[in-house]
Specification:
about 45% helix; 33 helices; 4 domains; Dna Ligase, domain 1; alpha/beta; binds magnesium ion; 8-stranded parallel β-barrel; 29 strands; Glucose Oxidase, domain 1; D-amino Acid Aminotransferase, Chain A, domain 1
Length: about 850
Amino acid sequence: MAPATHGGRAKCLQRLARLDLPLPTTVALSFDAVHGLAAGEQPDMAQVLAPFEDGQLLCVRPSSEDPDWGGPGAILNIGMNDEQLASLSETIGAEAAAKLYLKFIQSYSTHVARLDPDIFDDLDNSDPDAVADFLEAYEDEAEEPFPQDRSAQLIGVLRSMARAWEGTTARLLRQAKGAPADAGLGLVIQAMALGVGHGESGSGVLQLVNSDTGLPQITGRYMSQSQGRDAMKSGAGALFLQKDARGASLEEKVPDAFALLTEYAGLMRARLREEMQIEFTLENGEIHILDGVRVQRSARAAVRIAVSLAEDKIITREEAVMRIEPRALNELLHRQVDSEAERDVIGSGIAASPGAATGRIVFTAAEAQACAARGEACVLVRRETNPEDIRGMHAASAALTERGGMTSHAAVIGRGLGLPCVVGATSMRFQIRKKRIIATDGRVFREGDVITVDGTTGNILAGEPKMMEAALDDAFQTLMSWADLSRDIGVRANADTPADATTALMFEAEGIGLCRTEHMFFEADQLIAMREVIFANASADRAVALQALLPMQREMFVELFNIMGKRPVCIRLFDPPLHEFLPTDRAGLRDLAESLNLPLSDVTRRVEALGEYNPMLGMRGVRLGITVPEILDMQARAIFEATLDACGDNEPFVPEIMIPLVSAKREVELVKTRIDAVAAAVRTERARDFDYRLGVMVETPRAALRAEDIAQHCNFFSFGTNDLTQMTYGLSRDDAGRFMSPYVQQGVFPEDPFHTLDQEGVGELLRLGAERGRRAQPDLTLSVCGEHGGSPESIAFCRQIGLDYVSCSPFRVPVARLAAAQLAIKDKLQ
Ligand code: PEP
Ligand code: MG
């Protein structure tokens, strides 16, 4: 018997039987048999019923391949009829017997005869004398007497369950949970352990761990005179299992049964190699194990359970690593909306940065900072964010934007900061000037109203639902250390600031794969100096203005190097278009004119002159490095001086310098010449030697195609898959959110290519770039530093084409480490 032919439940019950647990007689029907039943085939009932005693009551439960795909509800007490009522009244009492019959009539008429459940509305099912009324109600509605023959009842139940599974609604529901269209259903027929009657009879469930934390704790409930999962219904008056100050317990009431049940649960854990929940029944004090199901668990509990199974040597460490879905780690790394909490969803968008946070709505970065200064949590709501909003994002608890996609500004910064973020929330209306947002259902939310951004699901919720805290506990650390033992591709972090670097280190990134230096320039003091650089009329003036920036950059690099110790740090030279540093509104222009002591008209003209039709394809990256080289000279000097300052008397460490937006070999030659000159100057001034590694960001299609030329001057390439995706598709990364959902829904793109690497198109360029680059430089270090570096599917591709490492936002480092380890383990097992 296998889950693929009879379903998971049937397989599990077979294993429990082999463990000699007290299981009622059980017969399993295969997917084929059930499919035949749905199509009207007549089963051989004599054979099906042969293992059961005459008159024995039965139950039928579904057994799908994966329990999460669901299935029709179990039907209990099949075989109840007038004769059984009489004989059971003798053995278990009239009241208990009538209760079973009434329950069965009701479920049979609803699920098998498909009668309206209302027909019993006026009848009292707690009245044992009601049986005749129930039978009459059935007969009136069905126009035939209630079937008395067990075999006929059973066929009816089996066929109705088989047909329910094949109905369209059920199919769509399970497909939504990942089941294939042709998923089969098995059915398990089991002798009933009654749970009602004389002596201590009842039912319950028991598990050995807490489902939220995964820590050892005997949990579950038991209820006398009950069947199935009645004990779990709230307010049912069920008993605790273990002694409990809150009320009576099974341990006190039937200590032997309690001891035996915990022993069985332990045996199941050890032999089924999984934390199981037991469904059990006591019949006159005697235990029957009806079923075992995998304990439901939060992501946090899943990690602890896997680690403790491996620590108890029940599974291997590698198996523990394989059991955790990498993305589920997000649940541990960030605060989340509690799974039990009520969610008042007011809109949705792209889940751009996981975690959830609540706060008052603010519409500007300045208001966000003011809120933070008052110690109030706020959600920054913008049409889209730009570099000027960074400080506002630092101050906010979450960000929500109308526009944007997975790699737009808010998304990238949000992930970098670990700030929950939803972008492209086009289902809501944003009236930023009126300071309000309008929910999908028309409700209006104004500045100061409290909302919650759930960046894990992409939902926006009204108010403040209950939250679950992040849990970086010892089990998480242990699992990650085991993952690293198997991993064979490096994982670095994209980190721009000392705070990011500290987070990266906490998550054990092997280095920094991308430091976007421009983010430093948005710090207040650097921004003023940067604006002076932009407004300088001549190269000499610019050099003077840059002198003010040099020490600030150097100090920042020293800090980064000190935090990262001996780990490599890859610093990308200035990338964005200059106008991003200039104000956009009149008040900002006036302030700027004042601080530069220039007429407002001059400043306005200059700002306008810097405007570009298409800034992302304009004067940015290496193009700026060639046309305004003083900025790169300053940055190279800051990096080299910081290298010497940070190493003290020790051997200097080797910084990595990366050139953005390269498309031609000559660009690299020109930049390399300037950097070499700065390096030579610093060596002479400091009378110390040091080395550096030069690399190129391969983020234009041409750079990938001409990789063989370009690699001649490089030690490394890092694929900037954000820009490379943008340019390969001709798809703006900031505007894609507007039509990404319909595109994905209609199957134009299988996934958002800014989220999951497009292996066929962009991937082809990566493959070509890697091959051609290594043809020129066999020991060229290759990596990805676009957002794809943190996506498990994309990591598989990077590993397959032989990249040395991936680099992603610090908070995605654990996900990447785990995903990479699983790929290596999978390869080993094949
Ligand atoms: C990229 O383009 O992939 C990249 C990492 O750089 P940025 O996102 O800063 O453009
Ligand atoms: Mg880029």
